[in-house]
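Exercise 7.
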Amino acid sequence: MSGCSPFANVYRPSMPVLPRSCELLDWYGATVSYGTLQQGGRASRDFYNILIDKTIHVTENGPLEDVVASEIIVWEKSCIVFI
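Solution. The predicted structure, written as tokens, is:
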């Protein structure tokens, strides 16, 4: 079970086009970064490839500690909110 916010959402089938801009959440549901969904690449069915636009909250030894803007990372779908 994911520790992300229950309000985090992934693509809903009712959406006509997959949204691209998103917020990345930590395990407590706090926004830690803004990014852009990247089509293609290799990610499992539970993850998306995300291009980091801006990191707003970094904790020591956290998942974004060494990530910089313009880097593509893999992030759990349940911890992404499309905006």
